């Protein structure tokens, strides 16, 4: 793992630790983390929202029942559509919303996460996968996804926002 990624992981523990205290709420809320980066917080996994001049990149998409509320919250910070969804792993509170996003966005996950979704008969597994790392470029913004080995599951991805020096770790980062 590069020193840059290590430093980012250590210095920017993003949504999972800084904001999980709000997860007990029954509805979703959105909070600005940094300029152009938001967190949708509620029961289950948190959703990262990276706003770019050409559209939105989501990190995770919760459950299917959360789709309309997520879309409403995204529209409160951007008039542009969700273009990409990066799943941090296969659990339903992180990738269950794929069923709603698969026809309007490109959904991306680690190969093992997709395999787990297929094996578990989960609806709407991603069409695009990666093994070690990948990146999405949209509106001059880069978002990277890294597989760092088995963690919470065998298909966890750590998402890195290089311009913001911030990471989203899915369920790899928990408040105890």
Map the helices and strands:
Blueprint: H1 3-11, H2 15-18, E1 29-34, E2 37-41, E3 47-52, E4 55-59, H3 67-75, E5 82-86, H4 92-95, H5 98-101, E6 106-110, H6 111-119, E7 128-130, E8 133-138, E9 141-146, E10 158-161, E11 166-168
Parallel strand pairs: 4-5, 5-6, 6-7
Antiparallel strand pairs: 1-2, 2-3, 3-4, 8-9, 9-10, 10-11
Describe this structure in words.
About 45% of the residues are buried. The protein is an alpha/beta fold and about 180 residues long. The protein is built from six helices and eleven strands. The model is unreliable at about 5-25 (pLDDT under 50). Helix content is about 20%, strand content about 30%. The radius of gyration is 14 Å and the shape is globular. It has a seven-stranded mixed sheet with strand order 1-2-3-4-5-6-7. A hairpin with a 4-residue loop joins strand 10 and strand 11 (about 165-170).
